[in-house]
Amino acid sequence: MLSRSVNHIFLFLLFVLNLCSCQTEPERSGSGLTIGTSLPVLGAIIDELIQEDDKVFVLLSGSGSPHNFQPRPSDILNLEKSNIVILADPDLDGWAVDLESADVHFLSDSLDNQLILFSSGYRNPHFWMDPVLIMNLVHPVAELLCQKRKLACATYRRRARKFAESLVALDNEIATAVSALHNRSVITSHPFFDYFLARYNVRVITTLASIPGHEPSPARIVEILESAKKKNLLGLVAQAGLPDAAVVVIGQETDLPIVYINPVGTVGQTYAEFIRLASKTLLGLENI
Fold first, then answer.
1. Shared-domain flag, residues 44 and 164
2. Residue 161 in contact with residue 141, Cβ under 8 Å?
3. Of residues 148, 202, 176, 124, the one with CA closest to residue 31
4. Which of 88, 159, 90, 85 lies closest to 130, judged by CA?
5. CATH code of the domain in which 220 resides
6. Hey, which of 63, 136, 225, 232 has its CA 20 to 30 A from 266?
7. How far is CA 125 from the centre of its chain?
């Protein structure tokens, strides 16, 4: 009789140990997730979904360009120590292939390929400029977090629903604000703002360079000047933080106003603040 009781206790303990081993490390320790990402704007999106004891660390401060970013050894170490790394797109975050043990996920993998824009044959990774596309991504991101911390899954899903609802309101707000620019035309320095402009019906008649950091040739500048003089343009939209010599020349030659937009956000800025600032800056072309 005693032997049978000991066996029952032993089997119960094995069950408990097995249950504990199935939990992720954050669940066992009671601590939150550590989530790595590259851009402040991505950090702002993730912040909307997580619990108070989860932590997001962002690699870029907001002053640099993600296109020429290379992580430092300390960045690599921090990413590989994190529970999950959430990045934008392989074409933007190609350096992530060097991460040997990090659990890396690209947000663009959850987007329908038909929603991805292309510029001169190049895949455009700046989809976060469109609030509607972010609306489509919040639930997949919540499910990624659920896989890492099952005990917090209900919170992640609830916050994803709340964030998605706020994005519907944000989209309506921006659509109303930018409606005055419907079918107006701009020149862009790079295709960083194409998703926003396409969503809110502002036309791009030409882009100076398809790849950020590349300057157009003199022949290309002449071609753009000739095209600009034949159009009733709103102005030029340039990416902040990149060389702008060609943008300045075209602005001077055509008397077109220029605005600069930061496409990566700043640390501490919410996603709604990021999109509202971009909208306000674009609308500023009418007042310059």
1. yes
2. no
3. 148
4. 88
5. 3.40.50.1980
6. 136
7. 9
Q: Are 282 and 161 members of one domain?
A: no
> What count of other Cβ atoms lies within 10 Å of the Cβ of residue 257?
16
**158 plus 49 within the same structural domain:** yes
Tell me if 8 is assigned to some domain. no
Q: Which residues pair with 35 in a beta bridge?
A: 56, 84
pLDDT tens digit sequence for 132-182 = 999 999 999 999 999 999 999 999 999 999 999 999 999 999 999 999 999
Residue 6, domain member (yes or no): no
The sheet with strand 55-58 has its strands ordered as: 55-58, 34-37, 84-87, 104-106
At residue 12, does pLDDT exceed 60? no
What is the band of 9 on the pLDDT scale with cuts at 50, 70, 90? very low
pTM: 0.86
Tell me which residue of 200, 86, 96 sits closest to 142, measured CA to CA: 86
- The burial of 118, by beta-carbon neighbours within 10 Å (0-12 exposed, 13-18 middle, 19 or more buried), is given as exposed
CA separation for the pair 39, 263 (Å, rounded): 9
Q: What is the domain count for the chain? A: 2
Residue 18 lies in a domain: no
Q: Is the backbone of residue 30 left (phi > 0), alpha (psi -120 to 50) or beta?
A: left
Classify residue 3: in a domain, yes or no. Answer: no
Q: How far apart are CA 288 and CA 182, in angstroms?
A: 18
